[in-house]
Amino acid sequence: MNRTEKTDILVAGGGVAGLTAAAAFAAAGFDVICVDPAPPATTEITATSDLRSTAFLMPAIRLLEDAGLWQALKSGAAPLRVMRIADAGGTEAEIRDTADFSATELGLDTFGWNLPNRLLRAEMTAHLLRLPNADLRTGVAVDHVTPRSREAVVRLSDGAWIRASLVIAADGRDSAVRQGAGISARRWGYGQKALVLSVSHPRPHNDTSTEIHRTGGPFTLVPLPDHDGTPCSALVWMDTGPEIVRLAAQDDDAFTAALNARSCGVLGRLEPIGPRRAWPIITQVASRLDAARTALVAEAAHVVPPIGAQGLNMSLHDIATLRDLCVTARDSGQDIGSSDLLHRYHRTRRPDILARVTGIDILNRAAMQESRALRDLRLAGLRALYGAGPLRRAVMKLGLGVSG
Ligand SMILES: Cc1cc2nc3c(=O)[nH]c(=O)nc-3n(C[C@H](O)[C@H](O)[C@H](O)COP(=O)(O)OP(=O)(O)OC[C@H]3O[C@@H](n4cnc5c(N)ncnc54)[C@H](O)[C@@H]3O)c2cc1C
């Protein structure tokens, strides 16, 4: 029989959320083991690379700073100073109105920063490997969690056994830890997919993210750092599932033509860089965020369409909330995996998660409109919203998770 090891926290999942959780809890002084069945992350683009980028809004940046990650990440990040929404819902595929939100309106220098996921995972992995109290194990999955009164006993796929005070489930939307704990999740789709790729363009993005609405879903260009002096952006192109499958399969010339027709020329001629990858668009919410000795975070707990850069930013709220509760418990000699603490975590995060899931669901349905009349209504709503100062600022603050 394999030896049983002991740790404060076992993180199931080494995606961006799991790696951030491992770094945040290690920085707070806990012993952490993080396991993931995938091979170690590299910056190379391979068949299994995560081609998405993540726009981190300012509260999330503060967590990355606390976790000791931001210094290494910042050099690969592009600032987001303006969020531009453009409506191209008229008869012709051309921009008929735009509205700009500027970070300076909220007294901020930037809304946040955008980074390619594969860079994030590689930097976070390198950081964890340097920490004496963090142990990252790739190629290994959590097989089974048995909660006991004082700890959880976790069996890993390599036969190792770990005793942990707390298990953090960051093992993604199909979380085996969530299912093993008997927590149900409600999932619904929209008949949509997202095509994700990077593009270069002749005009600078000027730190502006541009979201173009027509039908089927938004087409969003998010700034990336320049590549060899050429401006670049990450593209998330949402449309009906069959349309995205068709676009993903097109040859390069046909795809580049379709891409440029849909972008309405906002940054000049777009040239794809590297491969394209399609992602299903769903919403999913777990019925609870806690089970015995277990806390769910990130996509194990909630999945939303990629609108308003909310997905991982909500996840980092989960991690910061759980870390703060655990630090307070430890500093007063309490158990960091007690059911009281975990209920409090559930009660603290649940209302914010439900409000954001509902808001993003409504925005996504509005963005999908095929009917001309509804597209005009969307435009009228957009104009009303962006014209009204207090409402506009309230929505911007909600997007940023800024309180007060
Ligand atoms: C197209 C697109 C664009 C997006 N853009 C943004 C954005 O700009 N801003 C934002 O905030 N969010 C964005 N999101 C959302 C964001 O990408 C996700 O929320 C985030 O990447 C998910 O992170 P995660 O770590 O929870 O899940 P995952 O990345 O799915 O990671 C889960 C990990 O768990 C591992 N795992 C699975 N089973 C086990 C097991 N049994 N034991 C241990 N490990 C296991 C997997 O190998 C995987 O590495 C976007 C999403 C999409 C689809």
What structural category do the secondary elements indicate?
alpha+beta
Name given to the CATH homologous superfamily of the largest domain: FAD/NAD(P)-binding domain
Number of helices: 11
User: How would the global form be characterised?
Assistant: globular
Sum this structure up briefly.
This protein has 404 residues and is α+β, with helices and mostly antiparallel strands. 36% of the residues lie in helices and 32% in strands.
Write a structural description.
The protein has eleven helices and 19 strands. By secondary structure, it is of the alpha+beta class. It has two domains: 4-62 and 120-187 and 286-363, FAD/NAD(P)-binding domain (3-Layer(bba) Sandwich); 72-115 and 190-282 and 370-400, D-Amino Acid Oxidase, Chain A, domain 2, CATH 3.30.9. The strands form three sheets. Strands 1, 2, 8, 9, 10, 11, 17 and 18 form an eight-stranded mixed β-sheet that branches. It has an eight-stranded mixed β-sheet with strand order 6-5-13-14-15-12-16-19. The longest helix has 29 residues, at 339-367. The radius of gyration is 21 Å and the shape is globular. 44% of the residues are buried. The chain binds flavin-adenine dinucleotide (FAD). The site of flavin-adenine dinucleotide has 33 residues, from helix 1, strand 2, strand 3, strand 12 and helix 8.
